[in-house]
Structure formats: structure tokens, C-alpha cells
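Researcher: Here's the sequence for the chain we discussed earlier.
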Amino acid sequence: MSTIQEFHTASEDKAFDLKHRQTINHNIGKYNVAVKNGMGQYMDHELARSRGSYLKTQAIENLDKYLLQFEENFKKRGGKVIWAETKEDALREILSIFEKKRAKSVVKSKSMATEEIHLNEYLEKHGVEAVETDLGEYICQLSGQRPYHIVTPVMHMSKEDISELFFQKLKTARTNDPQELTMIARKMLREKYTTADVGITGANFLVADIGGIAITENEGNSRLSVGFPRTHIAIVGIEKVIPSLQDLDLFWPLLATSGTGQQVTVYSTVVTGPRQPDEVDGPEEMYVVLLDNGRTNLLKEPDKRQALNCIRCGACLNACPVYRNIGGHTYESTYSGPIGSVISPHLMGMKEFKHLSYASSLCGACTSVCPVRIDLHNLLLLNRQQSVKEGLHDKREELGFKAWEKGMKNRKLMNMVGAGLKNWALKTFFKDTWGRRRITPALPPLQPAMERKTW
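Model: Thanks. This is the structure I predict for it:
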């Protein structure tokens, strides 16, 4: 099946999966309560959103300047920067580091970019053991699934599901106590930190003026992944850059409140390079891989580049009625929900993923909750427009609309065709699009013209 056919099939399965719906509604309901409470820290949240939008827009509009500034400052402290135009470039450069270090094990934390380039599978093919250390990602790895959500990767799983997974994979006793389940995973992972050759993380932000990466988290696994292994590799999308360390004062609370409802997450870390002579811990060598992988495709589109402002809070997913019904895995992309529907066609190909931009009610809920004011529902419309301009739309639907246009502009021509033929045409041309979940309207037969009366 094509990507769009797989999407339609998986969407229908999930939309009518009552257990899935119950789990998602329960988890998003808890999120909504937490966010409402977290908003209490703001005197003017709308002003914070506007400031965040302005700062990110300035960074994206001057991306070349800030990335070069980051590179210069990072190198001053002994860090090494790798520019990766494609995911193949990134994988090749990362593997060369492993080969040079003769590394055979890696602990990973906080990185959607590694999911984007399928790093775990690539390393395992080359004899490297890759272990996810964040609880959600670790559960995904055990179950052989992609992350379901940008922030909470196992939102679709209940504690009973996780207990059964641990019982099957780790041979532990079944328990529905979340704390016990957490301790089971923690015990399994602790020894991995001390024996791993390399630590890999992502970053929430690249801080240009100090040449540092900023990571915010709740479990502390990024700190362990940075601190224990001798080599640290951070894989970060080029759009994550911000001008100044001072900007974190705005962005960290915005990200925490929109992402989890917290005022700020438990651990917030800035890493500015490998261990210095006067420091007691940290990696001996540190690399930052600046990943493009299609982001400049968005950058060159002035009307769409604001999608690069995204700070990956996941708020738009939780607000989206489509996401809440079809779930995260149906998107077949690292980034799901409204922001995934906007950026995936540009990162992974408009031809294969343009259908995601049609999987929206255009209600605008995503736009209303975005902490940096990305105009998501209008960007979805622009993606649809682009796909039509590139000739990627359904040809039968196009024929149907052309016939409708011609008929509506010529009443005599419209009347020449009987109702039976018109109804057949509607059902045929719109069967796989409009007609999948809707009853095609039946057109009435033509009525004889009424005699004009004068009063």
C-alpha cells in the first residue's frame, strides 16, 4: 500500500478503537488540568507568546548568522561541530566517530532528531548497542514502536500495558504501581551509564552567544548521558538556535507550561563543550551535529518558514481533535499532530506525506495553544495549495471539480445531463475522498419549467 492508503487504513482502525480512545482521553484530560494550573505563573501569557514568536522569528530570519556564532563559540571551548545536510550525512559522520573510538555501546536521551534519522537501527546494524534511557523512549524501544507523542512518547499505553510489557520483555513481576514500574526501568538502566562508550542527546535549544546546548528534562537522564561516557554527541536540528542565554528565561517556562503544565521542568542544563582542565566531570570529547535534513526546504519558503519556530512542546497535538482520534503512530512520521502535518511533507517529501495536511478540521485549536504563535492551520492550507500546484492531488477529484465548474457556468449544459448520470459521476469521482465517510448527496431529477405568471 502507498503511504496515504496506510494512513487511511490505520486511521480508521484507531478511530474506532474504544480502548485507545479511552486511554488518550484520560491522559490528555490530565494534561489539560496540569496546563491550566501551570498557566497561573503568568500575569500575561499572551505577551509571553508574542515575545517567544518574535525571538524565534528573528532567529530563523538570521539563521546563518546565529549558527555560525554558535559554531565559533562552541569551538573556543574545544567542541567540534559537524554540519549534516541530509540524514545520510549525519549517520555517516556519527558512525565514523564510533569507529574512531572503537565504541560498541551508547546511552541516549532527549532526542527526536535521532528518531528522525533512525539512528538506533543504523547503529545496531553496525554492531553498536543503543539504549534509550528516558522512561518513555525505553518503553518504546522495548515494544518496538516509534514514539507516539513529541513529549510523552507512550501516551497511548496504560500502566497495565507497561506492566505486561515489562513482564514479557524483562521477566519482572506484574504490577500496576507506576513507581514500581519506574524503579524497574531505572534499575535496568543505571549500569548502562557507567559502561557506555558514548552518550548521545538532543537539545531543546542551541544558544548562540555562549556556544552551548540547552536541555530541559524531568528525569535527569540527559545529565547522566553527558556526564558518564567519555564522548558526547548532541544531534540537533538547525532551527533550534536562539540568540542569547538570556532568552532561556522566556523559553524554558513557555516550553514547560505548554508541554507538561509545569512552571519549569526538574532539570535544566546548559553544556558548553567538553570537560575543561579545571572541571571534575563531563565528557573528554564533545560533538554537535547540526542537522538540516530538509529544514532549508522550509527556510526558503517565506510564507511557510514560521513552522521552524516550533519549540517541540506538543501542545498542538493535545489540542487537535484529529490527533486525539487517530493517534500518533498513524502519521508514519517522527513528528505527528498538526506540527507534524506541516513539517513532515517538507522533511520527508511532499509526494508521500502531503495527505497529512488534509488530515485536519482546520478548527484552529492548534494555533490557539502554540506558545510561539505558529499559524498552523493556515500553514496546512498552504501545504495543500503547494501539493495541488505540484500536481500531487487526486486526478479523479480534479476531473469532478472541472465538470462541476463547467456545468455551474452553463445552465443549458447542466440540464442536458440527467440526474442519474450526475449522481453516478459524484459517487465515482469522489468515492475515495469526500465519499469515504460521508453519504454522497443525491441530486433530484429536473422539474419542468413553471409557467411564468404575471400579477
